[in-house]
Amino acid sequence: MTAVKPYPQTAMRDVPGSIVRPPYVGVMESEVYTGSDVQDPEIIEKMRIAGRIAADAILVTAKEIAPGVTTDHLDAVAHEFMCDHHAWPACLDYRGFPKSICTSVNEVICHGIPDQRPLEDGEIVKLDVTTYIDGVHGDNCATYFVGDVDKDARKLTEVTRDSMYRGIKVCKPGRPVSVIGRVIEKYAKRFRYGVVREYTGHGCHTAFHSGLVILHYDEPRLNTIMQPGMTFTVEPMLTLGSARTEQWDDGWTVVTRDRSRCAQFEQTLVVTETGTEILTVPSSGKLIQGGDPSLIDLSSIH
């Protein structure tokens, strides 16, 4: 399988003027968030709505995945769905990012820019979709197959998904956030997969990325204690080979240095009094599984 190369991009897509823009649109500097990591019930309820739209957008977009389809087309589908549901595509013009979602193919770890490159049979593609609506965000990602995918890519996708849910399962009040990475890395090592370190989970609520960091590897010094009402993402990126990274000249696209394939899954969650609740849940109520897009049921999505 040949290495992924950049292709021409289409123009940045328009958003109806009736849709409220996030404050960071067109701002090149990093977000500055000085509020609490703990959100009130009103914010969390709004995040359930933003999360549902983001999850539905992934499913609608993934249904279009097939050999010969461009990632630009996938971007157009997701963009239209989010706008139709009165949500701003949060990636669009975030620190200058030119598209509405991230589409990361094969060895692209994250932040892949949708372009006119056709997808090829046997590839995997990560769809990373974030909405902004009513002042809050819903952020999620899943890995999908393009046509007939080999057993190595299937296993990597399955283990990455399961590692995310294992990390989410251990979230409880009173525990340090480091337990998430400890569980994920331990599970990934059973399969000899690499765990990307440079790109992490993050606080997510009114801010797209707050200062809260969620690592996907074991680092006990990261000992922030989870509290009810904390909202953040868990989004492990596992690789078939080395997890060492490098970035393209576009300033966004991150790839594995050895060009080994990478899978990623992500959910936004809130810590509850007894555990956790995933906020990026599709209209069907069934959590996103990734993998074969032909198995997606869109009957509950409107």
Structure in words:
The longest helix has 22 residues, at 41-62. The protein has a single domain (41-293), classed as Creatine Amidinohydrolase, CATH 3.90.230. Helix 1 (41-62) packs across helix 2 (71-84) and helix 3 packs antiparallel against helix 4 (178-189). Strands 1, 2, 4 and 5 form a 4-stranded antiparallel β-sheet that branches. Strands 3-12-11 form a 3-stranded antiparallel β-sheet, with no helix packed on it. The mean pLDDT is 97. The chain has 4 helices and 15 strands. It has helices at residues 41-62, 71-84, 151-169, 178-189, and strands at 88-89, 102-105, 108-110, 124-133, 136-145, 194-195, 201-202, 213-214, 231-234, 237-239, 245-247, 254-256, 262-264, 267-271, 276-278. With 302 residues, the chain is α+β, with helices and mostly antiparallel strands. A hairpin with a 2-residue loop joins strand 4 (124-133) and strand 5. 22% of the residues lie in helices and 20% in strands.
For the record, give the distance between the C-alpha atoms at the N and C termini, rounded to a whole number. 37 Å
Query: Strand fraction band?
Result: 15-25%
Parts with pLDDT < 50 across at least 5 consecutive residues: none
CATH fold group: Creatine Amidinohydrolase
Number of strands: 15
Number of helices: 4
- Could you report the average pLDDT, rounded to the nearest whole number? 97
Supply the CATH architecture.
Alpha-Beta Complex
User: Using only CA atoms, what is the Rg?
Assistant: 18 Å
Major sheet size, sense and barrel closure? 4 strands, antiparallel
CATH superfamily: Creatinase/methionine aminopeptidase superfamily
Form type: globular
How many domain modules?
1
Order of helices and strands: HHEEEEEHHEEEEEEEEEE
Give the quaternary arrangement of the chains.
single chain
Structural class estimated from helices and strands: alpha+beta
Portion in helices: 10-25%
What is the CATH top level name?
Answer: Alpha Beta
